[in-house]
Amino acid sequence: MGSSxxxxxxxxxxxxxxxxxxxxxxxxxxxTEDLMESRQYLVEMHKEQPPRILLSGESQVTTLVIDxxxxxxxxxxxxxxxxxxxxxxPVTQQTADFQVDFDLNYITVYLCVRNYARQFIEDLSSxxxxxxxxxxxxxxxxxxxxxxxxxxxxxxxxxxTECSIMDDQMYKDLDNLGxxxxxxxxxxxxxxxxxxxxxxxxxVDFEGKQDNALETLSKYLKEFAAKGYKMDTxxxxxxxx
Length: 241
Fold this sequence. Notes:
Elements: H1 21-45, E1 63-66, E2 73-76, E3 85-90, E4 106-113, H2 117-124, E5 129-133, H3 138-148, E6 156-158, E7 164-166, E8 169-171, E9 183-187, E10 200-202, H4 213-227, H5 234-237
Parallel strand pairs: 1-5, 1-9, 5-6, 9-10
Antiparallel strand pairs: 2-4, 3-4, 7-8
Helix pairs in contact: 2-4
C-alpha cells in the first residue's frame, strides 16, 4: 500500500511509523485512548497461538493463496489522478493510521489495479482453490476486494488477524490452512512465506506502473495445473524476478 505499506511488517510498526510522528501526534490529542487500545489489541492478537485451521472442508485441487497489496493492487493515500478509482474507508481502529485529512470522517484510498488482475482470478478459479490472504486489516482490504468484483471466485479471504508472528515479523503460516503441503502462495514479499519458501512464487512489486506479470504468471500456473507438476518443482520452474 503506497506510503503505508503493511505487507508482512513488524507489529509495532503498524501504528508507530517514524516518518509520521507529526501526524500521529495530531491523532493522539483526540484519540489517545483509542490508539492505545488499538496498539494493545494488535500486540495481543498477534502473539504466538496454537495452530488453527483457517479453511473449512477439503479441496480436490491445489490451493492458490494470493497476496493483495503490491501483488494485485497498489493504493495511495495522498491525492493522485494516476489511479483507477477512489474508495472511501470508514475511520476505525484498523484504519486510523492511514488517515491524512483529520477534518473528514472517512479515508480516501486512490486505487491502482494491476493489469490482468481480475482476469488472473477468473482464469485460475476453475483450476485452483483461490484464497486472497493479505497482511492488511479487514476494514481496509474488504472494500478493495469487493471493488475488484472477484468475491464469487474466492474460496476464502484471510486478513491480518489470520497472520502469525515469527522473529518479530508478520507472516502467513500455510500450515494453518489445513491443506497439507498442496498450497502455492503468490506474494511480492518473500518474508510473508518465509516458513514455506518451497511453496512460494515471488512476483515483482506492483507500484502503479502497469506490467504483464500477472498474465505471464497465469500462463505458468495453467501449465502447472495441466501437467501436474510436483510442488518441489514450483520455485525452480518459475522465472523469479
